[in-house]
Structures are given as structure tokens and as C-alpha cells.
Here is the input.
Amino acid sequence: MTPRGSDEGFSLIEVVIVVMLMGIVIVAVMSAVITSIATSAVTRSGARVETVVVNAADRVNRAPKSCDYSPYAQAAVQTEGWSASAAVVTQEYYTPAAVPTSAGTWTNGPTSSPACPAGALTDLLVQRVTIQINSPDGRVRRTIQVVKSDV
Here is the structure.
């Protein structure tokens, strides 16, 4: 007979405890990895949306004076391979107050020409174009405003 304790091995309880501890560690590590991957995807999507919103603002800023700037923002979205509906454009024109010491108001024009009073370009027109870009997955949204003016 061999002396007690020289070649015993591990008990079932010790093995179960080790497996449980390893499982807890693996679950924690996997949770961190999954969170990191999800965060990376959102960050990547955010960077693409930022690029598109700046591109759209640049296109609107460089566009000739117009009563509708939607096509410029939609073109910026489509160059990324996204649907034109990812760009939401709100257009207004500035109506000065009757008294110079009072603030004027931003007004929407007619549906066909939202950035122009009575649907026509006028001299000294000040326009505000708000561009909102939504990522295709809907998780990221960015907005920028461009003011166009002859003044």
C-alpha cells in the first residue's frame, strides 16, 4: 500500500469549483469583448455619419442660391451608398422684424420652395438650411445648420 496523500488527485468538488470560477471569468471576458465590438460598430457608424453631414453641409454651402437644397444633401448621402431618405433637410428664410431693434423670424416657404418667400428668389435673401443625417441602422443621428446669405 502507498502512504496516504502521495497520489490522491482532485476531488469532484474541487473540479466543480474550478470549472465554475473559469466560467465566471470567461463570461466576464466575453461580455467585455461583445461590448467592445458593439461600441466599435457605433463609433464607426458615427464617423461615417459625421463625414456625410460635413459633406452635405459643404455641398449646400457651395451650391448656387436656390429655393430647395434637398438634392445637395441627398447627393452627399447617396455617395456613401445610403438611401436619399437618410438625409432630412429643413429649409427656412429670414423675415426681418418691422422694427430694427426687434428680432426677425425664420419662416418656411411653400412646400415646392421651402427656402424662398412666395417660392421665388429675392435680393438680400438669408436662408437657413438644417441638415439631419441618420445612419442606415438608425443608431446615429447628426445635425448641422448652414446659413446662406447675399448680405
